[in-house]
Design goal:
By secondary structure, the chain is an alpha/beta fold. It has one domain: SGNH hydrolase (Rossmann fold, 3-Layer(aba) Sandwich), CATH 3.40.50.1110. The chain is built from 7 helices and 7 strands. The strands form 2 sheets. The chain has a 5-stranded parallel β-sheet with strand order 2-1-3-4-5, with helices on both faces. Strands 6-7 form a two-stranded antiparallel sheet. The termini are far apart. Mean pLDDT is 85; it is low at 219-224. This is SGNH/GDSL hydrolase family protein.
Length: 246
Amino acid sequence: MSTPPDAHHAGRRRGLDALLALGRPLLLISFALYQLEVRRNLYPRDRQPDGFDGVDPVRLLFVGDIAVSGHGVLSHGLTLVTRTAERVAVETGRGATWTVVSETDLTLAKLLARPEIGASGAEVAFVALGIPDVLLATRPEHWARDLETLVRRIQRESGLRACRVVVSGIPPLTDFRPIRPAVRRVIASQVDRLNAASAEVVEALPGAVYAGFPTWRIGDMYIKQAFSWRTMHDAWAESLAAALRP
């Protein structure tokens, strides 16, 4: 006798919940290591660009954690923010200006605790959050609830009926550095669950779109074999900009 689909999904969810509960201490250790690593790594040292000139610059908002902070590169011209804005400026032919809201340990809950997101006048908002939430073991249902609240707040604060929100997938964190197998399984599961929740939430929200994180695989070779933070920012920017195309 076969197992009903609903029972199968419920059983799988209970298994994943149990995995997350057992792995929570491992995730908290990983979060402490993450905080240490991001403090030691490189960030842009030059002046952030004011924008890209145009007759009617697109007003952008970037909200996120380490990538939006420019983790791993020394120039603002190489960051996720600038590379994405440049693509939007060129593809629309309008130019672009932008506002950045970023902290290396920014979680959805921490962002929502602010009295304002900073979205006033934004035509497009890019949301690249999730790494701290993965390592702090945020439950998918809490993530989904807060993400829906964030998208609605951004659109309301923007003051524009046509404000679009692009929600990025969370990167495959286990690809960035060696991780013990037990920790790898917990982190990978948590990334997948939060990304699935994001895609489901965004699908139901007008004006919002989900942009999966770009693949690391090229044929039989992983991009990480030739990895650099510069290439990561550039590939990620292409994924975000592509989400706005018809």
